[in-house]
């Protein structure tokens, strides 16, 4: 069979996606810079319809036209290198898909560059890690719509399926839209992980719960509205014992320095650039940064005083339920910010993003898959122009029911000296967003006082400057 698609890049993601595509009845051409990896891969899967090539030219020429090539190589310069090597062998109308974790502005640039030579370029966010790639990832492709249509049948077959059977792939929008949405997905992932970790910290250090008890609690929470992949794996992680014999749960033996690959930072940087409040995700990025300063923290822990009231009466069952409610409330704030950022970006970059569809394709395959995405879908189904999910009835009701818990958990943590950047930024965002009046008038007054930056008035239009002081 002539291969209907080629996969370039035989590291873990490329190999698993190639096997996934092959398992849906396609013949897949495969190529890797280091040929021995291609050779080993096809040898390990000799019963599969895989066609190896050891030069780019052979690889491209082996494909059915218009050609469909999925790049799964290291993001950044390596992606540019491979594109430039492939380009001379492509014809007008061929489709290149970059499935790497690429910065969306690189995708916008590449899409424009290749478009001028008649090559279609799709930047596709892929989520779900190696297992997702093999069994069914969530896919977020952006680029030329007609190019998407050429690859849609394959992508639809390999994507994860939501509980109602809907494939977790959809055309996201032009140029960098797909990689942008993947970036927001990753930012939201940072927020979710931070909020779950804060919940764990409060259970452990305020309520004195054991890892087994916490595991059971998270498993219980996973049956309700918090149901999600990350809550599920948390409940499992807490049950694993140290494999090096300390007798402790493995999680308690893991150093508390949270690393990152920069995608959370990208979404925060873009929020700053587009002037969108995105505090929960950004606090989560900062939380990882301060976690990395382990030596400094250990040193400061011996120097800086802690003055807290240890006599606060705590009703364990009550506080535990409040943590659950605060977690759901805070997660909603994080998603509200992430979706509003996408709305503002969509207008800014002219993408026409479809939020119901985005929520839909995040329901399976990806890391943030969660029950919460169903009410988000419903909110955008009812009103595709919705400014912020908090204005939808479901979320308005949750905010009404759970804000008391969000306030109590945050203030309890603050009184006891436990850091809760996620929880506190969530309730603060809620209070800012619903405030008709903020103290920004005083900021404007100061700006006008020292810099004559002018201000608007509450009672009439126009820009005003006040004569704060007379020249001496
Ligand atoms: P890596 O990101 O580790 O990339 C390794 C691959 O890139 C190898 O095939 C390597 O070829 C190739 N490569 C590196 N530099 C060059 C170059 N200059 N020219 C040609 N080929 C080059 O692999 P992963 O499978 O982990 O990820 C692939 C992409 O998917 C990345 O962009 C990643 O961010 C993204 N991704 C990864 C996920 C994951 O869970 N790992 C999840 C979602 C997306 P060689 O063998 O010759 O060195």
Write the layout of secondary structure elements.
Blueprint: E1 5-8, H1 12-23, E2 28-31, H2 35-44, E3 50-52, H3 56-61, E4 68-71, H4 77-86, E5 95-98, H5 104-115, E6 120-127, H6 129-135, E7 138-142, H7 145-158, H8 177-205, H9 211-221, H10 229-237, H11 263-274, H12 279-292, H13 294-303, H14 316-349, H15 355-361, H16 373-382, H17 393-416, H18 421-433, H19 440-451
Helix pairs in contact: 1-6, 5-8, 8-11, 8-12, 8-14, 9-10, 11-12, 12-18, 14-17, 14-18, 15-16, 17-18
The structure holds NADPH dihydro-nicotinamide-adenine-dinucleotide phosphate.
3D architecture notes:
The chain is an alpha/beta fold and 472 residues long. It is 54% helix and 7% strand. It is built from 19 helices and seven strands. It has three domains: 5-175, NAD(P)-binding Rossmann-like Domain (Rossmann fold), CATH 3.40.50.720; 183-433, N-(1-d-carboxylethyl)-l-norvaline Dehydrogenase, domain 2, CATH 1.10.1040.10; 439-472, Up-down Bundle (Single alpha-helices involved in coiled-coils or other helix-helix interfaces), CATH 1.20.5. The model has no long low-confidence stretch (mean pLDDT 97). The longest helix has 34 residues, at 316-349. The chain has helices at residues 12-23, 35-44, 56-61, 77-86, 104-115, 129-135, 145-158, 177-205, 211-221, 229-237, 263-274, 279-292, 294-303, 316-349, 355-361, 373-382, 393-416, 421-433, 440-451, and strands spanning 5-8, 28-31, 50-52, 68-71, 95-98, 120-127, 138-142. A seven-stranded mixed β-sheet has the order 3-2-1-4-5-6-7, with helices on both faces. NADPH dihydro-nicotinamide-adenine-dinucleotide phosphate (NDP) binds next to α1, α4 and α6.
């Amino acid at each position: 069979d002539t291969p209907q698609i080629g996969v370039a890049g035989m590291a873990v993601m490329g190999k698993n996606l190639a096997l996934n595509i092959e398992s849906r009845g396609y013949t897949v051409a495969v190529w890797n810079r280091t040929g021995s990896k291609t050779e080993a891969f096809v040898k390990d899967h000799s019963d599969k319809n895989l066609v190896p090539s050891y030069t780019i030219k052979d690889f491209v020429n082996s494909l059915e036209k218009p050609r469909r090539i999925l790049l799964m190589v290291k993001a950044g310069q390596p992606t540019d290198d491979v594109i430039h090597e492939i380009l001379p062998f492509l014809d007008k109308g061929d489709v290149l898909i970059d499935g790497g974790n690429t910065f969306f502005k690189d995708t916008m640039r590449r899409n424009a560059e290749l478009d001028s030579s008649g090559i279609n370029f799709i930047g596709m966010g892929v989520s779900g890690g190696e297992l997702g790639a093999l069994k069914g990832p969530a896919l977020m492709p952006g680029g030329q719509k007609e190019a998407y249509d050429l690859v849609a049948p394959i992508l639809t077959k390999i994507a994860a399926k939501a509980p109602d059977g809907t494939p977790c792939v959809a055309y996201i929008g032009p140029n960098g839209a797909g990689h942008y949405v993947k970036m927001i997905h990753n930012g939201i992932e940072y927020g979710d992980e931070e909020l779950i970790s804060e919940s764990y910290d409060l259970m452990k250090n305020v309520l004195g719960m054991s890892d087994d008890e916490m595991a059971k609690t998270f498993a219980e929470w996973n049956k309700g509205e918090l149901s999600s992949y990350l809550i599920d794996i948390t409940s499992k992680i807490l049950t694993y014992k140290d494999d090096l014999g300390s007798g402790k749960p493995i999680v308690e033996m893991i150093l508390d320095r949270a690393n990152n690959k920069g995608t959370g930072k990208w979404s925060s940087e873009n929020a700053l650039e587009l002037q969108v409040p995105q505090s929960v995700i950004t606090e989560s990025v900062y939380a990882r940064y301060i976690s990395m300063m382990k030596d400094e923290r250990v040193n400061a822990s011996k120097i800086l005083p802690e003055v807290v009231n240890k006599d606060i009466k705590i009703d364990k069952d009550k506080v535990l339920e409040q943590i659950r409610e605060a977690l759901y409330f805070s997660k909603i704030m994080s998603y509200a910010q992430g979706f509003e950022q996408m709305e503002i970006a969509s207008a800014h970059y002219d993408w026409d993003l479809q939020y119901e569809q985005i929520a839909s394709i995040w329901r399976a395959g990806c890391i943030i898959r969660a029950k919460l995405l169903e009410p988000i879908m419903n909110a955008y189904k009812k009103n595709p122009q919705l400014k912020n999910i908090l204005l939808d009835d479901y979320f308005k009701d949750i905010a009404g029911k759970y804000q008391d818990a969000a306030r109590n958990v945050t203030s309890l943590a603050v009184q006891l000296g436990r850091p809760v950047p996620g929880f506190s930024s969530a309730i603060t965002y809620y209070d800012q967003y619903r405030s008709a009046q903020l103290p920004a008038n005083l900021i404007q007054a100061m700006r006008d006082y020292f810099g004559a930056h002018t201000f608007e008035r509450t009672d009439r239009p126009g820009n005003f400057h006040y004569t704060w002081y007379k020249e001496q």
